[in-house]
Amino acid sequence: MQELKVLQKTATLHEARWWEPEPGGKVHCYLCPRHCHIGPGQSGFCFIRINQGGKLYSLGYASPAAIQIDPIEKKPLNHFLPGTRIFSLGTAGCNMGCFFCQNWDISKSRHDQVHSRYLPPEDVVALALRYGCPSIAFTYNEPTIWGEYVVDICHVAKQYGLNTVMVTNGYVTYEAFHDIYDHVDAANVDLKAFTEQFYAKITLTHLKPVLETLTWLKQETNVWFEITNLIIPTLNDDPKEIRSLAEWVLEHLGPDVPLHFTAFHPDFKLRDKPPTPPETLHRARRLALDVGLHFVYEGNIFSEGAHTYCPGCGVILIRRSWHDVLENRLRKGTCPDCGCTIPGVWTNPYGKTKHKPHHPTAQLAAKHDDLNL
Ligand code: SF4
Description:
9 helices, 2 domains, binds iron/sulfur cluster, 25% helix, TIM Barrel, three-stranded antiparallel sheet, alpha/beta, 17 strands
């Protein structure tokens, strides 16, 4: 069998975690519920985990294909350090096969089909510090598949008082779940629909593992997390499905987990569907609020549903326009009018970041001046 031609961006390939050898030189990757059994010279479904000589290696390690600084509201996170900037990175590949992927240029690419750059964990943290970002997001493609890199970045980030955020499809096994999530501070989990049919046909995965991840996050971690549901006309916009989703969130996660309904725009293999009408998002939000959820948002449109309202007295606490925070009236995480406590992380739990101009991190960051962030 012909070996994969690996465009090696680092001095050595990085051996993966979460795998075991199998007869015939195969390996079993148990990082995500796909449980790929990978033959010699081949990669898993996600493209970036490869079997070389009977060992599994991570091509995503220290090799981001997209690097950007975003408002944290773009992740979206509305209850985690609102109004701050977040250093964001992603690699090639993905473990889902969503027909509507909005980052398909990297997520559907192999490692050697994208422009990536060698960026070890120390350099990621140095750049985040240099650009004044209190947090780092693992985003754009599915970060679970480069979990080794995520965990190592988290370790360095903690030393410098930076927060870390997973923007994820939630498709991870329990064997790997705590290895990753015990080190991150926040997450946004895509709950892409509430039917197995949608997951099977449109994402080529399954619903149940995603629901399990959400319950593990709630019951077994201190990770602050929010949920996003991208509503696609005719595929997952049935009010009955939206009600069932909201009821499940209320029953299993409680009323305080923020839920974002966001608008679809035609992309990748789903160009035959129209953009989501704003009224669909308004209706979904009203439905979820009626079910009993306290914080329900509308995203990817200009809307009054972007603000944070006090569940106690109904006033606007954080006023937003798209991803911009226009006003934040919270006082130490409470409503200034009625005193209601608003769940979330409102101040950096690690205090101020420790970046100094003459610190070694400044030199590391300077190596990447050409990034023009
Ligand atoms: S992480 Fe990648 S290689 Fe591993 S099981 Fe999932 S899709 Fe397969």
